[in-house]
Amino acid sequence: MEKLVAVLLVFLGLLLIVPQTVIASDPDLTTDFNVTYPTAANFTFTFNATEQPKGKALPFFATFNMGLPGLSGLGLSAVVFKFGPYSQVDPHTHPRATEIFFLLEGCVDVGFVDTNNNLFQTTLQAGSLFVFPKGLLHFQRNNQDYKASGFSALSSENAGILIVANALFTSSGTGLPDNVLETALGTNSKTIDTIKKTLGASATPSTPSTPSQGY
Questions:
Q1: Per-residue pLDDT tens for 137-173?
Q2: Rounded Cα gap, residues 197 and 8, in angstroms
Q3: Which domains are assigned to the chain?
Q4: How far is CA 22 from CA 35, 44, 169, 194, in A?
Q5: For residues 176 and 168, is the Cβ–Cβ distance under 8 A?
């Protein structure tokens, strides 16, 4: 009986400890902010000053954290978006952060997919915002023939980003094995090779579709 009570006490102790570990987020500062010699400029950003670099081929441009020293250590990151006509942020996830996207100008389609495979999507007009829950697949697309711009705040200083197309077709230079992609996407090796070449993956021999002996 005493042994059972001891085991239960240990189990209850673990229950108290584990949630604290699971919900852990970015560490808190022990000072007001993480700027050695602060001025107002460290905490200020002028949106109009961020322009798409001249000669940049991509129709979409984003600036992360915007050179704001005042964000350091606060558990936040920020992104400024410039969308050219019919450009988009490809489907992606932020493993460590929820994102709040605010549209400043234009008209942008947004959406995310939850873990029950439900799609939540809408079209934002200037002055609207949309929430992308932490870790869920989402996208933003300017589906108009004029420019759009927006701003996002993320709930981690290191939100991380995993772009689905890159992960599938160009990760580590070669993408996932062709036979894995063929099965998952219901297509053939020719289509997979075409997509990989389009996205810039290195050429690799096709992975055998049968397991090795003794496996």
A1: 999 999 999 889 998 999 998 899 999 999 999 999 9
A2: 58
A3: 56-160 (2.60.120.10), 166-199 (no CATH)
A4: 29, 34, 32, 41
A5: yes
